[in-house]
Design goal:
By secondary structure, the chain is α+β, with helices and mostly antiparallel strands. It has three domains: 121 residues, Nuclear Transport Factor 2, Chain: A (Roll), CATH 3.10.450; 131 residues, Nuclear Transport Factor 2, Chain: A (Roll); 118 residues, Glucose Permease (Domain IIA) (Distorted Sandwich). 19% of the residues lie in helices and 40% in strands. It is built from eight helices and 25 strands. Strands 11, 14, 15, 16, 17, 18, 19, 20, 21 and 22 form a ten-stranded antiparallel β-sheet that branches. Strands 1-2-3-4-5 form a five-stranded antiparallel β-sheet. Helix 5 runs antiparallel to helix 6. The relative contact order is 0.14.
Amino acid sequence: MIRFFMLLLISTLLFGAKVENFRWKNGETYLVFLQKNNLPTRELYYNLDKTDQQQTEEILSGVHSQILRGDDGKIQQVLVPLNDELQIHIYKKGTHYYFEEIPIISETKIKTLTLKIKYSPYIDILRATKSHKLAKIFISSFKHSLNFKSGIRKDDTLAMIYEQKYRLGKSFSMPTLKVAMIELRGKRHFIYLNSDDRYYDEKGSQVEEFLLIRPVRGGRISSYFTKRRWHPILHKYRAHLGIDYAVPRGTPIRAAADGVITRRGRSSSYGNIIYIRHADGYSTRYAHQKSFRRGQYVGKHVKRGQVIGYVGTTGHSTGPHLHFELRKYGVAINPLKVVQVTTKKLRGRKRKKFLRLKKRYNRAIEKQIKNGTSYEREIDFPSVCYFNNQILKKIKSNGQDRFHNRP
């Protein structure tokens, strides 16, 4: 029914509607956003179920969002991404506003970059692409295996192939590095993203050293990580950006890796929660705690395995469990791909499969360098917005940005 209404709503409103692009402010809560924009908090927050309320706390600062207004200046629709799969959609029907979570319609492109080093890998990648994210990922991937400071010479070659998602015609989320090569004193060094979503060197040895321990002992995983899942009973999309460990109340919670506590406090949805910042852009979150261990304050350095709190049911929780999240540069990733990793070198069939992948990537990089492939800069296309699979194209009309249906 909602889908049908949205088609009708869009067709009747677009010719008088104007889009506003904005970035979510650092430290701004969803409730504050509603209040600032005179949107009803009861309909759009307090009447939501607990899971939907919880999702509103996942909005990342700086994320590109959109507001659609009518000729009267009143908000008709709002889109705010939660991750690279799901977004919050607020829309007006009659005199009431409604909340839903819908998939992000995006395009994934394979991108390439080849350049001669003039200053440093980070600076040169940033100058070529304007992407801090891509520069960070490249440096982080080689961090544990190469010494950039002592080994790089001017005019050494750097090359990579990566995936980038695009939303509304603009790049968003973290790029995924597929293969990277850097030349140090005439010798080429590679890393490859394998089918297990981990990075390996030319010999098939794992190169990413950031490994986590399980934050609680015993128990079972009661809920797994997912960026987008259709709930067959509720008939709505859900995201669960962590994993839940069902363990008895009072079970000690341990820091999954060395780091610094950046937040320790109370959240309406997650209850007592601790944030820890680790190396290489990683951070972890520990929610629904019964209580914090004494002496765990913001700014304190903690060691891997150190007890930081105790399992409880605070916040929106149906039973004692730990909700555990892992993020890299603020983007949620599946902790099970990093927790308790024991494979350091590929063997047998896994190694043979990796070697085939390596061969394909090496040929691609060699061709890229030989052809002198230059970086393809983004073209500043007009914004393209997707509402419930309807493609809306922003056009210039009488000096104003307006929407219309594209057939």
